[in-house]
Amino acid sequence: MADAPKAPETKAPETKVPEKAAEMGGTRQSLQRREGGRGGDKGLSLSERLVAGLSDRLYASPLHAMRLRGRYPLKLLAVAVDPVPGNAAAGERLVAGRLIHAGHTGFVRDLDFGAASHPLAWREWAHGWTWLRDLAAHELEAKAAAKLAEPLAARWLARFPAYEATAWRADLSGQRLLMALSHAPLVLSSTDQVYRSMLLSAMATWARHLDRAAVRLPDGVRRLRALAGLWAAGLLLPGVEARAQAAADVMEATLARLVLADGGVASRAPGDAREMAELLLHVKAALNAAGRPVPSFLDEALTRLVQGLRALALGDGMIGAWGGSAPIAGDVLIRLGQQAGLVAQKPGRSEIKASSVAGYQRLAAGTTLLVVDAGPPPLARLAPDGHASTLAFEMSDGPARLIVNCGGIGGLPLPLPAPLAAGLRTTAAHSTLVVADTNSTRIREDGALGLGVETVDIESRASSEGLWLEASHDGYARRFTMMVRRRLWLAPDGLDLRGEDALEPLPTSGLRRRTPCSFDIRFHLGHDVEATPTVDGAGALLKLGMGTGKLWQMKVRGGTLAIEPSLWVDPDGQLHKTSQLVISGQTEKGARVIGWSLKRAGK
């Protein structure tokens, strides 16, 4: 075992946050979760759920089947290039006769795409035909790959010749069209004219179905997926050209609602922003293949999405686990930037800078970066896997992650055990303050985010003396009659971070008494950070990995500090054992303020 790091022979770091400098004006914001009262977001309304149910019955009716009749295309007008790389290992397994996804295996020899024995996650993936992307990535000889893909496509067509609720779901139909159009050499190389006609006819039918179904989907990634498939089909399939402009018009309006001016997305999930960017790249590839100009709104939305994602990356280029998304690897962000035609980010001179994207605040000074969740949770309808993470932060020093959140499930190649997946959404799985081990925003039994944080007030300021961020939320106001406030200050050289976490009592009626309760302030550490308590028990030494050998020291004022086990889920879904620093205490009648600092030893 490596020797424990020794305490640096330096003066113990201060824990008090300096007063805000008056040198430069700051900004103030009050971010609301939703308009109106505090009844809590209940997801889709009753009328919306009724419309969805009626739509399903309509799509399964003979009337809808009649509406889907139309001209049968004889060939594609062009073939687009899939902008998203596949998984070569998954393609190799397909060649071996196994369709593996989300931990489940479907055997090609007797595959029934609709069998109830297949989990829903597997069926959704199989209906979207993204296995074509993996087969293409395996770089098998073209004819050999087609001999594998075409029988699978034919089997799917025979199993689902008419509407079926899951297989023909609008977003999955859109994904299936994108895959068939961009991997046409794998599914349309056959000399069997009956099969070719059947597939081309089916593609035109799916487009006609989407012409009616896509607009009925609520705002979100699923709607964009359906619209992207419809738009691409209108560009590349003869007979459905008129649908291209209609899809473009609806997508423009949808993007205006989902993609914010600063590059964030309404769901506040980086994984959603990534998929939206990839869908726009798919449409752009179809436009290029068809020789059509790319509308300015598409390029502008794509640029904003990639720039917004870049703003959430820490020093290793990876985006952390926010809003239900798993961490996003740095190479994904590099690829998206290249495909969007954006200049690669290069390390420049040290600068002190603050910025914000979709309620996330970014503080940068020297080699230190912080990303803080300083916004209210999104509406439940936009983020079914949202996290109760308000005022949590992640921090890096160069390429080494010092403070993290535990993880998320969105975008993982394999599902996590249900208890772990649920635990990752809790406030305790994030580097923030938790009262009485309860979530700052409730996670209901149906998985939706319920009552909790409705308003986040933010004040930020930057000057030559450092960066200040002060934010508060009302997530515990109803249950514990307390506001939570977090103050952060980052020194201009990035070597000193100071924080204060406060619980401030709210007025109560004469019939309600405020009782003391416990609280914890958690700092989940990067998986290669080694933590050792200081001799006085009021701090810890943190030795960073990544070959840096850097040493940071935490000091605490006003609470007791402990080092406890934790975990981190990486972009591939692998679990890493790590540690967390936990500052604990009890609330009092007056305000309770805990001061802490993180200071790098040496330069």
Structural write-up:
This protein is of the alpha+beta class. The protein folds into 2 domains: 54-258, no CATH class; 308-601, Beta-galactosidase, Chain A, domain 5, CATH 2.70.98.70. The chain is built from 16 helices and 20 strands. It has helices at 46-59, 62-67, 88-95, 120-127, 131-137, 142-159, 170-182, 184-187, 193-213, 221-236, 242-258, 270-290, 296-310, 330-339, 418-423, 477-480, and strands at 27-32, 98-101, 104-107, 353-357, 360-365, 368-373, 393-397, 400-404, 433-435, 455-463, 466-473, 482-490, 496-505, 518-525, 530-533, 539-543, 551-557, 560-569, 575-586, 592-601. The strands form 3 sheets. It has a 9-stranded antiparallel sheet with strand order 1-10-11-12-13-20-17-16-15. Strand 2 and strand 3 (104-107) form a beta hairpin. Helix 7 crosses helix 10 and helix 10 runs antiparallel to helix 11 (242-258). The longest helix is centred in the middle third of the chain and has 21 residues, at 193-213. The radius of gyration is 26 Å and the shape is elongated. The chain starts with 26 loop residues before the first strand and ends with a strand. Mean pLDDT is 89; it is low at 1-12 and 35-40.
